[in-house]
Amino acid sequence: MFLRLVADSFTRRPRRKLLTGAALALGMAVATAALSVSLDVGDRLAREFRSLGANLVVTPAADSLPLEIGGVDYRPANSGAYLAVADLPKIKSIYWHNNIIGFAPLLEARAMALPFALENGKLRQTANWIEDVPLIGTWADHGVPLPDGGEFRTGIAKTNPWWRIDGQWFSDDARECVVGTAFAQKNKVKIGDEISFAVGDVTKIPSPFKVMGILSSGGPEDNSVLVALSQAQLLTGRPGQYRKLYVSALTKPEDSFAKRDPKTMNADEFERWSCSPYVSSIAYSIAQALPGTDVRVIRRVAEGEGNILTHVRTLLWLVTFAALLAAALAVGASSAASVMERRSEIALMKAIGAGRGSVGFLLAAEQLLLALVGGGIGYALGIILARMVGERIFGAAPEPSLLVFVIILGLAAGVTMLGSAIPLRRAAHFQPAPILRGE
Amino acid sequence: MGGSLVGNRKMFWRILRRMLLANRGRVLVILLALAAGAAITAAMLNLQIDAKRRLTAEFSVLGPNILIVPAQTDSDATSRATLDERILDEVPPTSPDGWTPVNALGYLYLLADASGPTSRTYQPVVIAGVRSSLADKRVAAMRHNRRPVDGHSCIVGGKVAAQMHLQVGDQLSLHGVAGEQPCRVIFLRNMGDAGDAQISPELEVAQRLAGLPGRISLIELTARGTSEQVNDYLEALRKRVPNAGVHGVYQFSEAQGKIYSKISGLLTATVVLVLVLTALCVMAAMTNVAMERRNDVGLMKAIGGATRRVVRLFLTEAALLGLVGGLIGAASGILLSMELGKAVFGVAARPRLIVYPISVGLTILVAIASSFPLRRLASVRPAAVFRGEA
User: Fold this and answer.
1) CA–CA gap between residue B44 and residue B355 (Å, rounded)
2) Distance from C-alpha of B388 to C-alpha of B390, rounded to nearest angstrom
3) From residue A74, how far is each of A68, A110, A328, A344, B360 by CA, in Å?
4) Chain A residue nearest residue B79, CA to CA
5) How far is CA A42 from the centre of its chain?
6) How far apart are CA A54 and CA B180, in angstroms?
7) Residues A211, A192: contact at Cβ < 8 Å?
8) Contacts by A272-277, CB closer than 8 A, 24 or more apart
9) In this complex, do B287 and A337 lie within 8 Å of one another by their Cβ atoms?
10) B108 near B93, Cβ under 8 Å?
11) Are B255 and A333 inside 8 Å of each other by CB?
12) Which candidate in A115, B102, B298, B354 could, as Cys together with B382 as Cys, close a disulfide (CB 3.0–4.6 Å)?
C-alpha cells in the first residue's frame, strides 16, 4: 500500500513532481558547479601564478661572489665555479618532478659585438666593436631527455614567461641570436642583421650570428644579447657547463610549519615536510639531486605568490559557501512549497484514519526519492556547468569527483527534508475538517 | 472620470496592502529569499571591486613595477651613466590608485673592496647604496625593504656574508675609488635575488665611495594600481623626467592582470548563479501564492476585474517585495562584504555606493521575473473555481 501510494503520487501528477524535481536539480546543479570549480581552483590558480616566472635559482655552491651590475658580471673571465648541463635531467627525477614546470640554465659572459647589416645581398659592418655586451647563453625551447625515456621541453620562455619577443627565438644549436630592445635601439640592430661575438682577445672576426628576434623584458636583459647555451659554451670555452639555473615549480603556500628549519625536525616531521610541495622542500630535494649547488628561493616571488594564493583561496571558499547556501535555500523553499500544496491530500489521509507518523513517513519518502533523483540529475547538469565555467575562466575543465557527488546527494536529501519538515509539522496539527471544507 | 480613476488607484493599493498582510508568513519567506539573494549579490559585487584593489596591494609585495634608468645614449659608457639624485624627489608621491604612497628607491651601484673584522684581505663586492623617497618610519615597517638605518650601518647579502664569514654586528671597511667608509652589519639579507650578493649602505656612503656626489644609477618605484592606471602613471612620469628612461616591469603587471581576470570571472559567475537560485526560491514561493489565490482571483474576475489589471496587481506586489527585500538585503550584504574582506585580506572592504542600486535593481528584476507562476492566474475561470474544481 505504501509503495503504491508513493508510485501513484509520482504517476498521477507527473507535471507537479517534474516542477519540484526541476527546481531541485537546478539548485543542485549550481551547487555541484560551485563545489567542483572551487575544489579545482587552487591548482589552477597555482598554475596561473607561474606566469610570475621562476621561484628558485640554483648556483654553484663553490662560486666566487658575483659582481653583477646592470646585468654585466665584472668578475675576471674564468673565475668562479660552473655546473654540468649533463646533470640537469636529474631535476625531473626528484620526488616532486611533476611540480617542476620548467627550468632554464644560463651561462653569462661579457662579450664584444660587431654588428653587420645586410645590404644588397652583402654584409656591411655598421659599427666598430662594441665592448662589454652582456651575452646570455640559454635554452629557448630545448628537449631534455628524461630517465624514463620521454622528453621534457623547457627553456627560458617557461621560467620568464613575461618576456615579449618580436620575431622568434633562436634554434637550439644554430648561430642565431636574440637581442635586447635597448641594445637594438642603441646600436641600430634589426631583425635579419648579423652580429659577430668574441669573448676575450680577438685575433680574427668570428663568423656572425643572425638576429632572429628583439626581446623586451623590462629588466637588464634589454641591454644584452641572448644566444643558444651551446653557442655560449663554445664562445666562452666552457663546453657542457652553465652557471645559473632558474626553476619554476608549482608550490603550496608556506605555513608556519614550512618555515621551520628542516635540521630541527624529528623524523616524522621531516617526512611530512618533504612530502608537502613547499617551495623550501622542493629546493631541498633539488639540492640533493644536484650536489655542489646552492639552491635559493626567490623570496619575493614565492612569498608574494603564497600570500595572494592563500587569500584568493579563502575568498573562493567563501564564495562557494555562499552559492551552496543559496542553493540550499532555494531547494528548501521549493520542497516546502511542494508539501504545502498537498494540504487537502494530507487532510484526506488523516480523515480516513492515517496517523501523524505514517503521513509524515509517506511524504518524507516521496521527498527523499525526489531529492535523490533530482540531486543525481543536478549533479550531471552541474558537471556540464562546471566544465563551461572552468573552460571559460581557466581554459581547462575540472575533473568530476566522487566526493562532490556524495556531498551533493547528501545536501539534496538533507535540505529537502529540512524544507519539508516545517510544513509537515504544521500539517500534523491541521484539523482535517476545515481543510476539506476549503477554509 | 477623474474621480473614478483616483478611486481605482485607491482600491488598487488597498487590495495590494491586504494581499501582503493576509499571509504574513508567506510574504516573509519571499522577502527572506529576495533579501538573502540581494545580500549575497551585493556582498560579491562589493568584494569583486575590493578584491581588485586588494590584489594590486598584494602584488606590490612582489617588488618594484617601474624602473627609471639613465637615458639611452650613443656613448659606450651607458652602463656607467648615472642619474641626478634629485629625480628621486620629483617622483609623484601618490600611487595611481589614488591613495597609497609611492615607494621610490634610488640606488647607486659600484664595485668596491670590502674587508671584514677577521680577514686582512679585500673581497671585491658590489655596493648598492640606497635611499628611499619615503619617511623612514614607513620604510621600516616594510619587511621586504630592509634599509640601513644610518650612515654607519649596512645590509649585507647572504652570499657576501657566507663568503666573508660575516655576522650581524660585525664591522666592515669598504674601499672605493674615492675613499674608505666603515659600516656595521645590521641585517643579513636572503631574498634569492641579486641583492644577496651585494652590500647595501646608505646612498650617501656609496656616493662618497664612488666619488659621485648627488648621482644615482637607477630608481625602483613601487606604485600600486591596476595595469591601466600604472600605464597612465608611466606616461605622466615620462613627461616629468624627460632625460631618463622610464620602464614598466612586466613580470608582475602581466601576472596581476591575468590573475585578477580569473578571480573576477569566478566572482561574476557566482553572482549570476546566486541570482538564478534566488529566482528559483521566489518562484517556488510564488507557485504557492498562485495556488492560494485562485479563489481571490476568481472573485475579482467575477465582479469584473480585467485579467490585465489582476496581473498588474500581482506584478506590483512582486516588485514591491523585490524593492523591500533588495533594500534590506543589499545593505546587509555590503556590511557582510566588509566583514568578509576583513576575514580574507585582513582589511575591511570599502563599501562602494554603486553596488547598492545595482543589487536592488537586480533583485527587483529577479522578483518580477520569478512571478512567472502567477501567469496561471490569467487562465482562472471564476465559475470553475467557485464550484471548487481544481
Assistant:
1) 9
2) 6
3) 6, 8, 66, 93, 65
4) A70
5) 7
6) 38
7) yes
8) A274/A95, A275/A95, A276/A252, A277/A96, A277/A99, A277/A249, A277/A250, A277/A251, A277/A252
9) yes
10) no
11) no
12) B298
The yes-or-no verdict on residue B141 having pLDDT over 90 is no
CB interface of A with B, residues 112-141, below 8 Å = 130-132
Instruction: Tell me what percent of the residues of chain B surpass a pLDDT of 90.
Output: 11
Which of these, A199, A227, A224, lies nearest to A212 by C-alpha position?
A227
Residues A41 and A390: their CA atoms lie apart, in Å, by 9
3-class secondary-structure state, position A47: helix
Amino acid code (one letter) for A69: I
Phi, psi angles (nearest 5°) of residue B261: -65, -35
8 A C-beta contact, residue B72 and residue B78? yes
Proportion of chain A above pLDDT 70, given as a percent: 97
Residue A405 reports pLDDT greater than 70: yes
Alpha carbons B274 and A293: distance in angstroms, whole number: 53
> What stretches of B222-249 show up as alpha helix (H) in DSSP?
227-240
Closest-CA residue of chain A to B161: A65
Q: For residues A270 and A285, what is the distance between their CA atoms, to the nearest angstrom? A: 12
Q: What is the DSSP string of A59-108?
A: EETTPPPP-EETTEE-SPTT-S--EEGGGGGGGGGSTTGGGEEEEEEEEE
Q: Helix, strand, coil % (nearest 5) of chain B?
A: 60, 20, 25
DSSP bridge pairs for A57: A246, A296
Interface test with B, best of A300, A325, A425 (most B CBs within 10 A): A300
Q: Which residues, numbered 324 to 343 in chain B, qualify as contacts with chain A under a Cβ-Cβ cut-off of 8 Å?
A: 340, 343
Set of cell numbers at residue A253: 603556500
Which of B43, B62, B217 is the closest to A304 by Cβ? B62
ipTM > 0.85, yes or no: no
Helix or strand holding residue A58 (H, E):
strand A56-60
Going through A120-259 in order, the beta strands assigned E by DSSP cover 122-125, 130-138, 142-145, 151-154, 164-167, 176-180, 194-198, 209-216, 225-228, 241-242, 244-249
Strands (DSSP E) along A164-236, which ranges? 164-167, 176-180, 194-198, 209-216, 225-228
**In chain A, whose CA is at the least distance from the CA of B247?**
A218
Torsion-angle region of residue A293: left (phi > 0), alpha (psi -120 to 50) or beta? beta
Q: Which helix (H) or strand (E) holds A366?
A: helix A356-394
Residue A300: which of A44, A94, A71, A57 has the closest Cα? A57
CA–CA gap between residue B238 and residue B91 (Å, rounded): 10
Helices (H) and strands (E) counted in chain B, each on its own, are 12, 11
As given in the structure block, the three cell numbers for residue B373 are 507562476
Q: What integer pLDDT is reported at residue B133 of this predicted model?
A: 79
Please judge whether A322 and B40 are an interchain contact, meaning their C-beta atoms are less than 8 angstroms apart: yes
Lowest mean per-residue pLDDT among A393-397, A435-439, B224-228: A435-439
Segment A120-137, tens digit of pLDDT: 777 788 778 888 889 999
- Is residue A366 within 8 Å of residue A9, measured between CB atoms? yes
The closest alpha carbon to A322, from B343, B352, B340, belongs to: B340
Identity of the residue in B40, B76, B262 whose CB atom sits nearest the CB atom of A130: B76
Smallest Cα distance from B284 to chain A, Å? 5
**Angle, nearest 10°, between helix axes B24-59 and B355-369?**
140
On whether the CB atoms of residues B68 and B219 are closer than 8 A, the answer is yes
What are the strands, taking DSSP E only, across B196-355?
198-200, 215-216, 218-222, 244-248
The pTM (predicted TM-score) of the whole model is: 0.78
Torsion region of B168: left, alpha or beta (phi above 0 gives left; psi -120 to 50 gives alpha): beta
How far apart CA A12 and CA A28 sit, in angstroms, is 25
Q: State the Cα–Cα distance between residues A297 and B191, nearest whole angstrom.
A: 7
Q: How many residues does chain A have?
A: 439
Which chain A residues are Cβ-neighbours of B29 within 8 angstroms?
A: 333, 336
Q: CB-hemisphere CA count at 13 Å for A50?
A: 22
